[in-house]
Amino acid sequence: MLYDLSLRMGYSYDVPASGARHIMRLMPLSLTNRQRLVAGSITISPTPDEQSHFLDFFQHPATAFMLRAPHEALDIRMQARVQVESQPIAADFSPLLADLPEEIAGIWSLAPDSPHHFLGDSPRLTPTREIADYARSCAKPDLTAMQIAHALCTRINKDFTYDPDATTVDTTPIEAFRLKRGVCQDFTHIMILALRSLGIPAGYVSGFLRTIPPPGKERLEGADAMHAWVRIWCGETIGWIELDPTNDIPAGTDHIVVAYGRDYSDVVPVIGVLKSYGSQRAVQAVDVIPLK
């Protein structure tokens, strides 16, 4: 599938802000045999006084910029064309849960995609007994790591209600878990914690979701903003797979990857600090248009 993407992220301040420093991770990745960034551009208004580009630990392109002068608003626009390839359906050669620790121990690499980075605590994810107990209910001893991941994906989709008014970007996983409501970020964090509690490496994927459904299919939840789903390591043979608990589907040609991380803190689209007081308002608009 070939897509044209457009994203607008706007911020307005009650009192003009100054000395603003931000980091952006907005441009889709080029991934071997998965997706290709054909072309892309980002515009920032007002024009930054300083701007630089770098790769973060997970080898994702990021842009840092600074605005010294007072400004009442910040407007960021991204446009890109991305080719997304269909993924073959892989047979389940993942190990049983009891055998997974031995396979993890056999991985000596600490490269960005090493499963070791995705097993323990991360900045936004601390283990909780309630979510661990929930995970164990899906972890039957005769199931493989992949089967458990799919079972958790389906269970979260069934037990939780998509409700954009129920949570905020700062809602913790346990708060969303108790509410049984939230958005893709909440469901993704809950599923990651559940998988890690079982010893299954899992991480956060930030990206975009097709906004216009194919003929005869329902529109997917979470398509008006940036989307999130889960990356799961299922052993040496299978490697990483990606599942979307918000929609209970594997990530496919509807999903466009921007960044991988341990949790949302590693992939925040725009983060920064500034000098101001009062409140601020944020708007986000996304269009994902299939071309063929």
UniProtKB/TrEMBL annotation:
One of its GO terms (biological process) is proteolysis. One of its GO terms (molecular function) is peptidase activity. It holds the Pfam family Bact_transglu_N. It comes from the Bacteria. Gene3D superfamilies: 3.10.620.30. Keywords: Hydrolase, Protease. InterPro entries: Bac_transglu_N (IPR013589), Papain-like_cys_pep_sf (IPR038765), Transglutaminase-like (IPR002931). Coiled coil: none annotated. This is Transglutaminase-like putative cysteine protease.
